[in-house]
Amino acid sequence: MSTVKRVTIRDVAGRAGVSVATVSRVLAGDYPVLAATRNKVMRAVRDLDYVPNAHARALSADRPGAIAIVVNTVAVPYYAYIAQGVEEQAAREGRLSLICTTGGDTGRELSIVQLLREQRAEAVILVGSVVVDEEYRKRMTEYAHSLAAAGSRLVLCGRPPLEEGGPALVVGFDNAGGAHAVTSHLLSAGHRRILYLGSRPGHSTSDSRVAGYRSALAGYGVAADPTLEVEGEFSRAAGYAAMTTRLSSGPVDFTAIFAGNDLVAAGAIQALRERGLRVPDDMSIVGYDDVPPSVDLGLTTVHLPHDELGRTAVRMALGRDGSGPTVLGTHIVVRDSVRPITVR
Amino acid sequence: MSTVKRVTIRDVAGRAGVSVATVSRVLAGDYPVLAATRNKVMRAVRDLDYVPNAHARALSADRPGAIAIVVNTVAVPYYAYIAQGVEEQAAREGRLSLICTTGGDTGRELSIVQLLREQRAEAVILVGSVVVDEEYRKRMTEYAHSLAAAGSRLVLCGRPPLEEGGPALVVGFDNAGGAHAVTSHLLSAGHRRILYLGSRPGHSTSDSRVAGYRSALAGYGVAADPTLEVEGEFSRAAGYAAMTTRLSSGPVDFTAIFAGNDLVAAGAIQALRERGLRVPDDMSIVGYDDVPPSVDLGLTTVHLPHDELGRTAVRMALGRDGSGPTVLGTHIVVRDSVRPITVR
DNA sequence: CGACATCTAGTAACCGGTTACCTGGCCCGG
DNA sequence: CCGGGCCAGGTAACCGGTTACTAGATGTCG
Q1: Which of residues 5-34 of A touch B (CB under 8 A)?
Q2: Coil vs helix vs strand at B333
């Protein structure tokens, strides 16, 4: 009951009456082996229900390692979809994929990267917005070098590239472009006072979206108004809180809202509803990401090719695509959360 | 540029001027070593940025294997939450966790189980409702035995147990209980004609929920009406389709709906809306699972402790809890999708 | 002062595979 | 009839660690 006696290649060799080398060769499929011998071996393999030990294999032969994706949590659709893309592409490439979660904890991230180095992962895909400070750059550069030394490739998804020399691949969404497009959508509907809800200064993803928002305003000749940019995290609760605060503390001097992402939009809509403001009749709103709640909320938003991001990350890691920074395009999904401003 | 020369324990030993055994011992931390020696070794480790090879370790020493969870997809919240629970508990137990997806394909499931056997996974956690036919039982029993032979434990989550002898652990939600409770909730609000939307005869999870629905009706002395049980898959699209069909092909001879899960409810609500039926004013509806869309829809539903399921599965696999079948309790979450029937 | 216990560190076998190299049998041509 | 080539399969080194066993140095006690 205690230690299980596993079936080894030697057991198979013994039963088939051949050497371990022959068993290994039959299983590998390369190397010529007599049909009779092959049959004996296959018989023994089946009889004993032999399964080769992946660790022993990885140790002796140079075989492809696993592909790992590291995210904050898999319970957030944004990450889940990307992970799904990674999973699929990795499977297609014949790789095992590991999905690791950090819970947003830098310490855990570090120990996971360490763990993946020990596993001799072929690629480590890091996903998610971050504060790009000096400490971060240092940490990533360290990861990049140590992973490279171990023969692993580092892929940054939706994160800014490192300075030159950092051996990391980069792929992300065109956040500025999408934000520009969806803001223009509001502008072309006549909106001029647009509240940006959920900016996070210093966070790469958020910064790009705000940049797109501002450039779209500029394109329409609308002066940017700092009081229309409200900070907040990318969560439903934060969206609800920020909206509630804004509604109760200041004038409703805007006709539309651009939420940092769909979760923020969902929270904001609840807050609006509680104040008796209906979407889109009393207030227009758009989101970003095109994740589940947006369908049920009828939310106009920016669709991101999440799974494509995951797939691309894997392909890049395996050297299928180029190694330059890649940006994936986005497109608006029009639903029913925006009304044109009626000219008075 | 081609093959990376990895740093091995021998390199460290050489640099520190000691034997590999000493390095191994210093790193393991057991075994007495002079402070001076330890320092020399640690220095060399840092200088060379040495990372032990997990495969070599797994091969020689008896170390814990990874914990794997196998689901259809990680893009469905139900699975994502459970996976999250597994991840957390596995990390807490010092285990690496693998999240694998099958896309609902039996063939892929088989090859994944095979892969996990090769990896010498410590536990394999299979999640999700299935059709319990003879073929399924045979397949699971096979998995169970072959995994057991490899020293791995098999945990079935939300799936029915195998016949006696199958070395599999079982943990699931109290689906019948939750369904009974939420149906009673509707009954106590005066509803008597309750449409069950999304039954899937043969599927374990669905069957339990239908059973709870029926027993609650019986408890209130309401005769079950087969025409009120509509089949359909557990997805938004299926819910929408089934609801649309029902509304256009038959009379609206019900005042409330019990959707097989929240996604089905979301689809049904959209269909109702398109027919001009408002929730809850014109129609009451409840869901099951308590996953994201239900918050935004204001849907009364049954909360499942998803992450707790994941955590329990891991604990059971590691022998922390008992080995008997475990059932996790559920509770109703009342939101705003049910109105009492006004007595006329 | 010698016998023996204690402590530290080295030697080498082993984990379970892969594969470079070698061997023995057979067929062929000269 | 013999030497070379080919083919199938065996032998053993190796991948990178762990650890049982052993050896040498030191300390202790009678």
Answers
A1: 6-7
A2: strand
pTM: 0.90
The Cα B156–Cα B327 span in angstroms is 12
Sign of CA dihedral A174, A178, A181, A187: negative
Both structure tokens of A119:
């596993």
Model confidence pLDDT, tens digit, residues A245-288: 999 988 899 999 999 999 999 999 999 999 999 989 999 999 99
The answer to whether A130 touches A72, Cβ cutoff 8 Å, is: no
Cβ–Cβ under 8 Å, residues B209 and B179: yes
Integer distance in angstroms from CA A141 to C1' D5? 56
> Residues B50, B7: contact at Cβ < 8 Å?
yes
User: Does the pLDDT at position A85 exceed 60?
Assistant: yes
**Class of residue B176 by CB neighbours under 10 A (exposed 0-12, middle 13-18, buried 19+):** buried
CA of A33 to C1' of C27 (A): 19
Q: Which residues pair with B100 in a beta bridge?
A: B70
Long-range contacts of A36-45 (CB under 8 A, 24+ apart): A40/A16, A41/A12, A41/A16, A43/A16, A44/A12, A44/A13, A44/A15, A44/A16, A45/A12
- Tokens encoding B77: 């919240």
DSSP B101: E
pLDDT of residue A193: 95
Interface of A with B in 60-89 (CB under 8 A): 62, 73-75, 77, 80-81, 83-84, 87-88
Q: How far apart are CA A224 and CA A219, in angstroms?
A: 11
- Exposed e or buried b for every residue in A304-334, given b needs 16+ CB within 10 A? bbbbbbbbbbbbbbbeebeeeebeeebebbe
Token pair of B34, please? 């002079």
Give the whole-angstrom CA distance, residue A122 versus residue B314.
27
